[in-house]
Amino acid sequence: xTAYIATAAGVVFLTVIAGMIIxxxxxxxxxxxxxxxxxxLILISPVxxxxxxxxxxxxxxxVDYDYVADVFAESQSRELERLVEQKxxxxxxxxxxxxxxxxxxxEKGVSIVTYNVEEQLIEEIQSYLKELGYININxxxxxx
Length: 144
Known about the structure:
Elements: H1 2-21, H2 26-51, H3 58-88, E1 92-101, E2 104-115, H4 119-132, E3 137-142
Parallel strand pairs: 2-3
Antiparallel strand pairs: 1-2
């Protein structure tokens, strides 16, 4: 990241200096255009790096995929909590475990903690989650 910032700053600095040194005319316009295109390409290069399949730095890619899996798990947990609370009119806390394994982001399981509900409702919640396609469902009751 430090190398990227240094490169970007250097190219922008050279573009500014070149713009001041080059005399006015057609050559000035062409050189400024080329330098601006170079600046834009360098500034957006991290976007292209995100989509590339460069496996030379495998550990860095795993860190990125783990972060994506964590963000996705948090989002899915909030959405599932909203769905369960809306469908069953109960208060609960949901946790969807999503991991990056074997080149795929996949769900490993779901844990739900409910408050003061009957055993029959717990079975209905489990059935509902199976219909939604969740696996390894764990619904626990917590009395408070």
